[in-house]
Amino acid sequence: MSKEPVAVVGIGQTRHVAARRDVSLAGLVREAALRALQDAGLSWADIDAVVIGKAPDFFEGVMMPELYLADALGAVGKPMLRVHTAGSVGGSTALVAANLVAARVHGTVLTLAFEKQSESNAMWGLSLPVPFQQPLLAGAGGFFAPHIRAYMRRSGAPDTIGALVAYKDRRNALKNPYAHLHEHDITLDKVMASPMLWDPIRYSETCPSSDGACAMILTDRAGAARAPRPPAWMLGGAMRSEPTLFAGKDFVSPQAGQDCAADVYRQAGITDPRREIDGAEIYVPFSWYEPMWLENLGFAGEGEGWKLTEAGVTELDGDLPVNMSGGVLSTNPIGASGMIRFAEAALQVRGQAGEHQVDGARRVLGHAYGGGSQFFSMWLVGDRPPDS
Amino acid sequence: MTSAPRDREIAVVAFAQTDHRRTSEELSEVEMLMPVLHEVLDRTGLKTADIDFTCSGSSDYLAGRAFSFTLALDGVGAWPPISESHVEMDGAWALYEAWTKLLTGDADTALVYAYGKSSPGSVRDVLTRQLDPYYMAPLWPDSVALAALQAQALIDAGDTDEPVLAAVASRNREAATANAHAQLRGPVPQGDYLVQPLRTGDCPPIGDGAAAVILAAGDRARDLCARPARIRGIDHRIEAHGLGVRDLTDSPSTRLAAERAGVFERPVDTAELHAPFTAQEIVLRKALRLGDGVVVNPSGGALAANPIMAAGLIRIGEAAARIHHGRSDRALAHATSGPCLQQNLVAVLEGELR
Amino acid sequence: MSAVLKAPLVVEFPFTRSLGPVQSAFLTGLRERVILGVKTRDGRTLVPPVEYDPVTAEEIRDLVHVGLTGTVTTWAWNHRPRRGQPLDTPFAWVLVRLDGADTALLHALDAPGPDAVHTGMRVRVRWAGERTGAITDIACFEPYDGEVSTVTVHAGEIDDPVTGIVAAARLDYTYSPGRAQTAYIHALSGRRTVGERCPSCRKVYVPPRGACPTCGVATSEQVEVGPRGTVTTFCIVNIKAKNLDIEVPYVYAHIALDGADLALHGRIGGIPYDEVRMGLRVEPVWTEGSPYPDHYRPTGEPDADYDTYKELL
């Protein structure tokens, strides 16, 4: 018996901001979940299981917070799973939920990811002291900046590319009411003039720190047939992992990312991603990761990714729009960021992305990564069921 | 919605675990875990590259550092890159995730592992961090205190008394004499009250350990294991978080999971229960309607070794090993998570009739 | 093998928790010495009040006052209170169903001893002297055999509601780095950098982490590397991080020590930060009493050719 096709019939997000002071942790996740249920025209009783994800528990200071959140997510009496695969977790969580439907274990599953960074401080959570290790850095920017320099050296990209990405994503965010950063007066000059934090990364080329949640309702063919709005169909999905650091690791274009994309394309029957895929929501926490991931994902040859960015191909009206929602650069509730990528891809093929909709988007990629560029999760969604 | 026909038979084909000890301070997590991964692979003759899917369970809060599971991955040898996932839960739920992956047909073999080191921190205090962060966690009610509230509720309900609890403790530790991996083996004094009505003997040992299981689908299972432990059903359910809204003398989530897993369709001969505290075994026996004919915790259970995050997976592994060795034909395995049995998983494993 | 290396590791943070409307009302009420419950649609009163019905998942917002007296539904005698718990003398943990409530609240009961506690006993709230809007505004419960205490404090609008709590949390760990890292740290104390070679792929790992991550086997053969090495890539850090005593700007670099098969991370000094480049040859600079090189400085050798280190970024 082949796998059950998986459809996305409900999507909900919070309005992402630096600090949601008006809600508890339960209230935050609840808001996204309710919006997803409303989108799907379903109630709590229609949900068979809940799959939740987030990044490290230290960020909110609650160990395994799903135990406390079970009540708010209508999970009492139901199965509840908690995924944690570092920054890729939002994507991985959706894929674990999708497997429950694909395996016909459940008919309809709520999947949700969140982070409430304002409860602590991500810089603290990411930099807990380790005895006997020399403290050299705090935060993620310093970790990733040397890899960006390596990419610039390897590709010969002009040093303006990062600013172009940031300028594009921040403008896209203006069309997305849920995005955290709405910089109405953004200009390319302002991006270029922003201070260098971890040279070669400028302030405006980094992601914000957000409170937010994202939820999706995944269901089977029967569920999709009952849905009030057009579903998005999962055409392929995969996770790949490689070690954090190892001899021969390519931080610029990790093998795990290439393999993950290849698996997704194989499942979806994609042979030429650049032509056959209409847009991509890619996990870009620092602007230079757009050209790097374009190469890693097979949208451009090695060393050629920056040329797509420079030529405007990845703009909202380009022929391969990337991060139409404004991306991680505009919204980063860490644990939820991967799921937002997956959900935004689904919104596009459902034709529900509002002002940041790409006309005629039929196949869109959602991508997430985490850890030391080592955990990857991706899905490709389409406007029609697989094999149709 | 869980009754859809599934045409893939998934089985536990190998199990390995560390010797569980009060401390493994001379080893890093990966150094503790890696020999278990080698052992479980050796049992099947598989290599890392032969494994289609890998899934693990662990907790950052035990380790005291974020992303602690990324270091453990070093022991897997994830190169070329592997299809892999992680749950911040006991490894029993990692096994559940792997089981669904195998059901989809996308994978035929899976490696599931879990590890936990309780020695670096004070686990009674660490576990307070999983409680309601507004109303409970600020009071720092430790895990023994919460289990003691549950035990007293059972005593008040007439479901048990201290001598019965002492008998549960001694039976489990007695069984553990046959388990070379157990931390507490043989008679252990009931000791003084830790939190009354629980005495030290009613509580699990605190320690470090790891475990790993290999799952395989269909014919692959028979190739890898003379008598695979087929997963006839597996299900898990969660209850409300607040202790004051639950009936602590019962475990409806265990009962529901057991129903969905098919426990009540035919009697089991063996049950491995994840009951870290003696009184919880009383609750689980009732919820699972285990009769006197069932061999409960032949391994000694969590009262003999309780490496947090791995102890649930070990129950499944122990039940499967009984089937592998022909000592059981139909076994139940149970795992729990959260305060006072908030979340429970039940699996039914069967061997082919001999 | 010398004794196991250990060091204390304190994980501590004052978490700032925003509250939803129900927790806000309840904790504000505690500050004002009243206790609020929340009614479910089927008429149950939940105390402590939660935002969502645990049975139906419905949002619930109908707050009602309940008594300051109640009945113990279960208890446990805590012989040795632990850090952070409500009382520092032996006490009973209790679940208390307050008068007018259908569910029970977890807290402490101050009683002379376990013989003075039983399920079904009557108790009342003892308020903390200073109240801030937190569950600890209830200092504890105490035995009480009087009348049901009804709420007397103002039940109307409360000014200045509590909208957040600061939940300080400290956990103490003892960190031990394991066999391979312990050996590495011991060698560093003699100003030697010693990695380990994988018996399978022969790559040399510095620092060693106990396993060759690509082969999944233990590394054990010790190999001294360096002291010189090559800067393979770097960034210039311009922002000062809290609890990091390094003046900015500084260069954070990946350094492939001669003989190692991957780069380790270090700081570059002895050269203006804007003159650091990929391929720069460097050597460690040790300072008295420091367990690791303070930084690396240029050796003066010609820069390494990109092809010699491009696999070691």
Automatic annotation (TrEMBL), chain A:
Residue intervals of the Thiolase C-terminal domain: 243-372
Record's keyword terms, sorted: Acyltransferase, Transferase
One MF term in the entry's GO annotations: acetyl-CoA C-acetyltransferase activity
EC assignment: 2.3.1.9
Enzyme category, top tier: transferase
Keyword Ribosomal protein: no
Record keyword Transferase present: yes
Coiled coil: none
Protein name per the record: Acetyl-CoA acetyltransferase
Organism of derivation: Streptomyces cahuitamycinicus
TrEMBL record, chain B:
Protein name, per record: Lipid-transfer protein
GO molecular function: acyltransferase activity, transferring groups other than amino-acyl groups
PANTHER family, A to Z: ACETYL-COA C-ACETYLTRANSFERASE, NON-SPECIFIC LIPID-TRANSFER PROTEIN-LIKE 2
SUPFAM superfamilies tied to this protein: Thiolase-like
Domain of life where this protein originates: Bacteria
Organism encoding this protein: Streptomyces cahuitamycinicus
UniProtKB/TrEMBL annotation, chain C:
Stored SUPFAM superfamilies: Nucleic acid-binding proteins
UniProt entry keywords in alphabetical sequence: DNA-binding
GO molecular function: DNA binding
InterPro entries in the record: ChsH2_C, ChsH2_Znr, NA-bd_OB-fold, Thioester_dehydratase-like
ChsH2 C-terminal OB-fold domain residues: 64-127, 223-286
Domain of life: Bacteria
Pfam family for this entry, one: OB_ChsH2_C
Protein name: DNA-binding protein
Native organism: Streptomyces cahuitamycinicus
Gene3D superfamilies given in the database record: 6.10.30.10
Residue stretches making up the ChsH2 rubredoxin-like zinc ribbon domain: 192-218
